[in-house]
Amino acid sequence: MKKQLNASLMISLAAALFSASPMTQAASQEIAVMAWGTTWEQGLQVVADKFEKQTGIHVVPVTQSGSADGYARLQSMQDAPKIDIWFSTSSLAARVTPDKKLFAPIPDAALSNVSALIPGAKAPTWVAAYYYPLSIIYRPTLVTHPITAWADLWKPEFKDSLAVPDVQTYQARMLMVSALTHGGSIDNVDPGFTALKQLRPNIAMFYGSDSDSRRALAQGEVSVLIGPPSQAKPLSDAGVDVTVVSPKPAPVMFDVMTLVNTPKQAMALKFIDFVLSAESQSTISTLYNMGPVNHNVKAAPELAAVLPKESDQVSFDEAKINDHVAQWNERFNAEISR
Amino acid sequence: MKAGARVLLLPAAALMAIFFGAFLVFAAVGMLSCAPGTPGYSAPLTLGNYLRFFSDPAGLRILGWTVVFSLSLTAATIVAGYPFAYLIARTRWAWVRNLLLGVLLVTFLCGSISRAYGWLILLGRRGLVNEALMWTGLIDHPLALIYNVSGVFIALLHFTLPYFVLTVFGAIRAVPSQVEESARDLGASALRVFFQITVPLTLPAIVGGATLAFSLAISAFAFPLLLGGGRVRLISNYIYDQLFVAFDLPFAAAVSSLFLLVALVILWGFFAVERWATRAVYRRAG
Questions:
Q1: CA distance B222 to chain A (A)
Q2: A18-35 pLDDT, tens per residue?
Q3: If DSSP codes are grouped into helix, strand and coil, which group holds residue A268?
Q4: Assembly ipTM
Q5: CB-CB neighbors (< 8 A) of A220 in chain B
Q6: What is the domain extent for residue B79?
């Protein structure tokens, strides 16, 4: 009897200790957020630190090399996801978030900043964290004339000088620009492919990784990089001479936050709302060079100078992009990047 | 075989069953279909994905190119690696052997990603190789050594070389130097001794090393991705695109299964050559 009593006493003591241990409490007061490494390094970590200070909820950063890679990981843990918020491109989010098992809706009522969002920044299953145009970033010391228009890239003086995103990177927006500037459209991409074929002699690399393309520009492997202005920020911070232009037509894209179907949705929604707050948006704009989705926040002066005018901006039907991107990718690989 | 020996085989058999079981699951996923408009997949089971690959000229071209590229790289590994292994095995100076073996081991210790970035710096337009060639006046403009096939080939050769050299090095050391000396004493030139004595006696090891090099080359993914500049696409990159661009897991699984079969058939060819070489060497030795 005494032995039994001792045993039950020990079990109760252990249970009490365990439930009260700081580790257990910490685990219940933390969320895991998966985003790109660059996003974490350049802006999101600062936002997460402030969030933790204000709410006591610890944010565990998880990096993904691309949103497709992140989604593959989410799929592999779909029965018990260990990620609470997943950052993705709006295209991929539109494609995968109808999966009700893996993703939860983001109710407007849960976001105090929802009324401050710019048009198009909120959908039932995702909300934009920032926006960015597809721009031209170049090294003024390595080019003979300043670049002012997309057409400049086709000039012979840029032979073997361009880093261009492949079709899967930035959701085929380079193909769209090529199509729009050569008489095509999202429904008629043939002129875009023809123009990209003509651009081939000028393309030194097709990239799928931001950091690879930045390294190539920094080392002078290429003198021109097609990408968002955020690509220029770490280079200019490191003292590399870079200039950014966002000529017409300027495709504008969102990177978005999705809510993964986990028991920590309430805490995750708090974080999402915090990212949308004026303070966080200002931080992201200043540190990461991304456009704020909160209309009460003005883009950082450095960024505002290179953001395209509203009349120059173009957007595309994500459903159409999703429907065709695999086919365009195969054609791109067969005709352009071979 | 005694019952005890059979029991001892069980752990290895279980391990192989798990590996091949995983492969069979993948082959079975290849018979599912992609759910239209979503990244999911569903029944019924069909051979559609397998047939689709055989009717896709782009996919077949990439598979063919991957095999040709890997065989070329294997040949280059043999040509570059054998003299290197010979030098290590036959050098009179122990410090040279130790130095070269040390260099090989250091190469092993570096990960493939750091090696790829190393080559990016060395072979770039402003890299050491181009700077040296420009400085000597051999070229006016930097050569395009990366973001194309040559960059991937050089980096992969560097990757496969240690595997081949270390496999062959032991075999060359095992050839008694007296055999070579006897041939020389009987009037054979150094070149004849090399090609008629040393190389035939080490043929099984050459084929074994080549098998390793081929396996590494045909499954290469990171080197084409980092050094190919989007222009070099091997079958692994094609499968990656099916997974992460088209989100067509069943088709990716089907292509992977077919790719594995092709690789296994070629590897079986290597093993057949190895068996033939071993038998030929024993026949010659009487």
A1: 12
A2: 444 544 455 579 999 999
A3: helix
A4: 0.73
A5: 125-126
A6: 67-238+267-285
